[in-house]
Design brief:
CATH class of one domain: Mainly Alpha
Low-confidence stretches: none
Number of strands: 3
Order of helices and strands: HEHHEEH
Largest sheet: 3 strands, antiparallel
Length: 76
């Protein structure tokens, strides 16, 4: 027998949104546009560890999924 579970429509919308997210690697400009901030502020937050990021050479790189989870308040 299958179990039927009631869910809130907002939770269902969030789950569907998560499934549509592509796992991409963004540069500072792309990540800043997504977060609606400046590249200067984003770089500062990446350097301090506030925003999930990796430094590749002299450039910062950001995972689209990690940034989504950061905004959602989940683990990165």
């Amino acid at each position: 027998m299958e179990q039927l579970t009631l869910v809130k429509i907002d939770d269902l919308k969030a789950l569907l949104a998560e499934l549509k997210i592509k796992n991409e690697v963004w540069d500072t400009k792309q990540a800043a546009e997504y977060l609606k901030t400046t590249t200067r502020m984003l770089t500062k937050d990446a350097e301090s560890g506030k925003i999930p990021a990796a430094k590749v050479g002299r450039e910062w790189r950001f995972s689209s999924i990690a940034l989504y989870q950061y905004l959602k308040g989940g683990k990165t």
